[in-house]
Amino acid sequence: MRTVTATASAVTAALAAGTASVVAGRLASDAALKVSAGRPLPTEPRLTVHGTAAGRITLTRDLAALRPGVYGLAGDGSHAVVGAVLEDTPHAADTVVRRLERVTHGTFAPGDAAWLTPNLYVGTPRAALGLDHADVDVPGELGTLPAWFVPGARDTWVIAVHGLGTTREHALNVMGFLHARRLPVLALAYRGDPGAPRPPDRLNHLGETEWRDVEAAIRHAVHHGARRVVLLGWSTGATMALRAAEHSAVRDRIAGLVLDSPVLDWQATLRALARARHIPQALLPLAVRAAQGRAGLRADGLARTAGPDRLRVPALLVHGPDDRVAPWEYSRRLARRLPGLVTLHTVPGAPHAAMWNADPEEYEERLRRFLTPLL
Question: Are strands 315-319 and 56-60 parallel, antiparallel or unpaired?
Fold first, then answer.
């Protein structure tokens, strides 16, 4: 009887442990699979506003607050644009003073929480940049996908696809540059975005299913006069662009890819996001397995599968070693494997999907050189 009881207790304990592991893995995997559009990633530290004055703002001293370049500063209902660090401005040892370029809306007061964002602009192309645009509906696999279309004279279109934690407003950073070169731009909202259909499982698939919405955008562009398209993607948007170039039935219309901070190994990205939400190290393998099972993610990474037989168009990779979400090493490996097709521009000091922010002029010059032969 004692043997039977001991065995039953062991089985019960094993089942309880197994259930706990499943629950823990599921919760940990939420760190990447339930990222909200327009909300900061968990890797982005919250900063405290210590004060404002004419043309400057004082923030908590942090590596994020010291980043080079120009960024949006988002708070609770507020948005501003901050520029360079003002090293010569007097400040306390635990603070940083940056140039305050403008306040888009709201106010920032001492004690307010804020975070840096790649989005310099909010609103529509017309409201933010003064560009005429049309609100268009792209027929997608799950339903109608809203998009902004900024017309241009050329028959090569740029389809802009945002990534984790952002919205199509991210494309506004480069929209003025593209419009000045007479390129039509289609900035897409895809499944799970505000105004777009929600995926049946309510999960982000890190580009593995969302790429079909990029394919829908390519079909829309071709139907409305595009001869070829260039896919410009950030983060998982870059992953979607790569998947479309590999799998889409209309991939022959893709002239080139611009991949900013691409997620080339979803397991590494998921671990990084889970770790940033203080998931214990021991649970990270469970998070990976749970994510793979829940979202049907492929076990192989894009960095290992993208090869000469799959990637047939030129690609510009823009990435940096300070990316804490999508490791830069995978971009470097891809560029080494495909030197004839892939050009890597390395941007030090920039966080995930903010390569433009670190040095807008250099970014746009690299973009100009890449796009010119494709037009």
Answer: unpaired
